[in-house]
Request: fold
Amino acid sequence: MGRITVRRSVTRLSLGKPPSRKADFLAAEEPLEIRVGGQQLAITMRTPGNDFELAAGFLVSEGVISRGEQFRSAMYCAGADGSADGLNTYNVLDVRLSAETPPPDPDLARNFYTTSSCGLCGKASIDAVELTSSYDVARDPVTLQAARLVTFPDKLREQQEVFEKTGGLHAAALFDAATGDLLVLREDVGRHNAVDKVVGWAVQNDRLPLTGTVLQVSGRSSFELVQKAKMAGIPILAAVSAPSSLAADLAEASGMTLIGFLRGESMVIYSRPDRIVAAEEAALDVETALDSETDADAEADADADAEAGAGAWS
Reply:
C-alpha cells in the first residue's frame, strides 16, 4: 500500500527571522487506475488508503452499481508497474461485479480521467446531471435538529488525523441524523475521493441506500458532491463553505437538503429547509422567510436594473 504522507525537507521563513531547514509532512497524491473485469475504467489522483472503498463508491456515483451485493471483489494487480520483477505498486486495482450486473459502457472510460482537485474534469457536467439514481432522496422523511447539526463540523475536524499532520487533506463524514453518531470518516487530497470512500464503505457494509443520514464535508459543495450523495441515497449534504450554483440546482431538483456555511451556530439552507428543525423557542416558518427574502431580492434586482438602464441612457 502506498504511503498516506510523505516526509520532505522544507525551508521555513518568517519576517525578521533567518530561514531554517526542517522536516515537514505532505499528503501523498498518487494515481489509481480502476479496472472492471480487467478493462480500464478510470484513473484518479488520490491519497492511498481505502482504495477498494474508493472504487466501490466511484461505481455507485457513476450508476454502475447501486447495491452492495453487486460489488463482488477487488484486488490489486501485481506487476502493474511493468517492471521485470513484477512488483505491486498498489496503484492499479481490478473490480469484479456480480454476474447479473452489466459491465460499464466502454465508451465511458475515455471520460474518466479524474484529478484530486476537480473530479471528472474531462466529462461535461451537464451529461452527469442526467444520471438517474436508484434512490429517491426527496421521499426520505428524515428530520434533523439544528442543534445537533451544528456539532458535525467540529466532530469531523476532531477525527481528521492525517489533516492534523499535513494540513492538506479534505474530509467527508457520514452521520446518523437521528442520533448524531459518526458512522464513518474518510480523508483524501480530493474531496470527491473522500466522498467516494464514504459511499464505498456503505457498499462494503451493505448499507445502501443511506437513508436517514447526513454527509458532512470540509470545504465547499460542488455539483459532483451533490451527485454522489444523490446516487447513494443521502438526503442531507452539509458543508462549511458555499455550494456552487449547479450544486444548489441539482439539490433542489433532487429533493435533497443542501446546507452551506455551517459554522458555529449558524448555517444557510439552500433546499428542503423543512428537514431542519430549529429550537422550539426560536421556531420559524423557514419557507415563508425564504419566500420573503426572495421577493425582496427580486425587487432589489429590479431596482438595480432600472438604475443601470437609466445610467446607460443618461
Notes: The chain has two domains: 30-129, 137-282. DSSP finds nine helices and 15 strands in the chain. The chain has a mean pLDDT of 83. The radius of gyration is 22 Å.
